[in-house]
Write the structure tokens for this entry.
Amino acid sequence: MLNEEAKKPSPSEVIALPPLKMVLVHAKDKRVNKADLRSAIRKVSSAPVRQDEKIEVQSLIKIIEHFTNGPYYEKPMNSSARPVDVLRLHFADAVQENIPLAPYTSARIGGMADVLVMVKSTNELMGVMKVILEQGLSYTILGGGSNVLVSDKGVRGVVVLNRAKEVRFESGTQPVVWCESGVIFSNLANRCASRGLAGLEWAATVPGTIGGAVYGNAGAFDGDMSKNLIWADVLTKNGLERYSVEQMKYAYRTSILKSKAETAIVISAMLRLKNAAQEEVSAKINEFSERRKAKQPPGASMGSMFKNPTGDHAGRLIEAAGLKGTRIGNAEISTLHGNFFINHNETRAEDVRALIRLAQQTVAEKFNIKLELEVELIGEWNE
Ligand SMILES: Cc1cc2nc3c(=O)[nH]c(=O)nc-3n(C[C@H](O)[C@H](O)[C@H](O)COP(=O)(O)OP(=O)(O)OC[C@H]3O[C@@H](n4cnc5c(N)ncnc54)[C@H](O)[C@@H]3O)c2cc1C
């Protein structure tokens, strides 16, 4: 745990500070000036680093640079300005107003974001979040938009679209990969395969980003994030913190973040891999891909709408309730799989919500089982 109460160090102490984490603490608190921090980074960057600590050191340097190099570090904020203008002051063209969110979701459903900011690096993500938190703006973070139903009325405040995509592999007897949270998970799994790295085969067919998967404990084919995550760097109200996998409190498709026990933005993650033959990893991915194609209906959807109740399957219950193929507007409970709700074209979120209610009510009446949503409803809804 970082010691937030540490006394203010002298510049020479900062430069000599072992470990590097201490520099980060002081950078966050702005208790050292930029010149000292830059000098500390230069020293640490050129110092020999143990092979097994290389990625950690690099990721910490990146974070410290965020606190010292970002354009947002020095510009004063005008508290009476509109949120969009405050953000534009710092992030210019990355900030857009009244943007339809449907194209940023796998279901292709949903209204407008008041403000949309696309970030392409950890530095930008941290910078945008710093302004949002300092200004007290309401925000929603979106990765691949593959596990959300966005309301027709849209999302108030700022939607941060995460496209931070840097990846670093660390080879050795216990290989790992560090990745920014906007990395597309399926791409990462395929990159691992081409390097002969196993462990993420299950993720090669899961849409969305690392951030979304860390948040929701995504999983498939007996694998899930809880089995791969070593730690995640998350931005909480206390600043940047490193959560171990235990701190994520993972359970079936949930975490400390998804259960809302804590609010945090996933910035990056370190994942455990295994050495393997490239052909073996690719063969497993192909097998999973074939199995998915055989079961999963095509078309725009959010994947599984409900979590599977203990000992049963939501899809089986919805089918047994006679609801497969039920349609409200252009939203349909798939004829192939009862837990997939398909957008047949320009579907309203309210129609999908009506189908959700219908499925929950019918399954509760017929089987006395409460179906719990896996997908999250975001934005402004009619009650
Ligand atoms: C066809 C299809 C098949 C699917 N199959 C599977 C499957 O097999 N297994 C499975 O688990 N899921 C599956 N899903 C659901 C989805 O792929 C996963 O839930 C995925 O992990 C969501 O990631 P995302 O980036 O799209 O998250 P989003 O939908 O963008 O966001 C989901 C939630 O995560 C939050 N979030 C996103 N990024 C961050 C971040 N950086 N920090 C904090 N919070 C964040 C959002 O605010 C939101 O609350 C499927 C979806 C589809 C469309």
